[in-house]
Amino acid sequence: MLQTPRGGAGHGTAAADRRLMSIGTVLNELRAEFPEVTISKIRFLESEGLIEPQRTPSGYRKFSPEDVERLGQVLRMQRDHYLPLKVIREHLDALERGERPPMPSLGRQGDVGDAQGPGEAEGPTAARVGRAELLAAAEIDEVQLAEWEAYGLVAPLPDGGYDAEAVTVASLVVELGRFGIEPRHLRAMKAAADREAGLVDQVLAPLRRHRNPQTRAHAEARAKELAGLTGRLHSALVQTALGIRLP
Predict the structure, then answer these.
(1) CB-CB contact of 42 with 34 (8 Å)
(2) pLDDT of 246 strictly over 80
(3) What is the spatial distance between Cα 182 and Cα 35, in angstroms, rounded to a whole number?
(4) How far apart are CA 196 and CA 235, in angstroms?
(5) Of 38, 39, 160, 204, which is least packed with CB atoms within 10 Å of its CB?
(6) Which of residues 96, 116, 134 is at a domain's end?
(7) How many whole angstroms separate alpha carbon 235 and alpha carbon 247?
């Protein structure tokens, strides 16, 4: 018989059981909006108390549609607002209790370090955060961030801020660290990423030097497309080397 931790995850009836999904099915459901999500990510979010899927007697996870919806909310808040998992968990738990808490935010991003004026509406985090906000989003300290910068994994912008990609990298480094993979182990991945970026730059250089602004804009769109393709190829090659077959 299934163990039922969270109230909305089914009540053991046959109808409820038919609604339950395996972790592989959940992965496929989420990947339309979150192509980078992995089974390890879902398990990590469970370990952090963000979701509580049911368990079969054999220990297999079974997710309800409500679990999948909550996972989507967690991933969306991470992606769009760069919020720490603790803040996300508290916000979603408050919603489940019937409360109406405001959406937590790291603050509106203008020039890094500028104070927000009185009466200025708080909005979602834009594509740039300050150093303190990066530390809060990744839940790390100054020593860790300095180490990552020394290895070239994260780099500040000229104004001292960090872009959205830096927040993503920081979150992934934290997750890998939970498996015992240290920042120094990631230098080879950084070097490989730099080589891939160099290849993309080489392909797009003629378009980026073009006089026509539309052609240069097209080059940026192609850069994003190529970055996505190289990322997927890298992931597929790693899985192949490890003998992993995704469901």
Answers:
(1) no
(2) no
(3) 25
(4) 13
(5) 160
(6) 96
(7) 15
Within this chain, do residues 135 and 167 fall inside the same structural domain, yes or no?
A: yes
Enumerate the β-bridge partners of residue 129: 162
Cα separations in angstroms, 218 against 31, 181, 209, 213: 26, 38, 12, 9
Cβ(127)–Cβ(163) under 8 Å? yes
Same domain, 92 and 142: no
Q: Output DSSP code: residue 160.
A: S
> Running DSSP on this structure, what letter comes out for residue 178?
T
The whole domain housing 81 covers 7-96
Q: Evaluate whether residue 67 is within a structural domain.
A: yes
Q: Amino acid letter at 18?
A: R
111: tokens are 């020039």
Asked whether residue 230 is assigned to any structural domain, the reply reads yes
* Dist CA 113 CA 33 (whole Å): 32
Give yes or no for a contact between 10 and 66, defined as CB atoms under 8 angstroms apart: no
198, 172: one domain: no
Tokens found for residue 47: 């370990």
Look up residue 90 and give its two tokens: 């508290």
Enter the tokens of residue 136: 């809060």
**What's the confidence (pLDDT) of residue 216?**
77
Cα separations in angstroms, 155 against 99, 134, 138, 148, 231: 39, 11, 14, 8, 20
Q: What are phi and psi of 168, to 5 degrees?
A: -65, -45
Question: In terms of pTM, does the model score above 0.70?
Answer: no
pLDDT tens track for 192-238: 888 988 888 888 888 878 888 788 778 888 888 888 888 888 888 88
Which residue bears the tokens 């989003």?
137
> Does 102 fall in a domain?
no
Q: How far apart are the C-alpha atoms of 163 and 109, rounded to whole Å?
A: 11
Same domain, 150 and 210: no
